[in-house]
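Continuing the series of single-chain predictions for the mutant panel. This is the parent chain; the variants come on the following pages.
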Amino acid sequence: MVTGMFQKPENALPMTRLGRQFERKAIRIRQFAGAGYLEPLDPFELAAKIGLRVVSLDELRSLSPEVRSHLTEVDVNGWSGGASPVLPDGSRVVILNPKQSRTRHSATLMEEICHVLLGHKADRLGVAQSSGAHRDYEEEREREAYGVGAAALVPYHALQGWLEKGQTTSEIARRYGVSRKLVEYRFKIVGLWQRLKQSSSIEDHPNERS
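Parent structure:
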């Protein structure tokens, strides 16, 4: 049985200070989502649970052709998505870039979910005809939302266990529906990067986006 090969979740905190901070918050989010401690967490299901409606940029008909082109063609890798403020019915809307991959959507959506659950103010998505789209954000909160979101998607105890079992970064990424780049970010932030480099589990992945 797979669960018997892994450290118990109540003892599974990273050795790094920042890793522990992210992990503690991510554990609570996974518990709220009802995800088992080795199971993948589906951010689309969690979004629905907290009243976030997920839409594609293609569904927004009010954007000018110039802005749409900038977000989906000119700067396709620069803008992944954003969330609205609370709407009159109590819901929020998360807009995703349709030109990006499913794994990128998962990471982006999980980051926006964390902004909500961590009590961050909604990002403002400003659109200017002369200079394209501009997103205002506070760097520290972005870092926290991404870090906690990544920890919720790929928990520390699972990273430890799969590394010990010889799983590659690609295999872990496929198991949790994320990119290899996100998996490697997790290895770094929790202090397991050197162990990964010393194993045969690390792989090259040119130009892959998280």
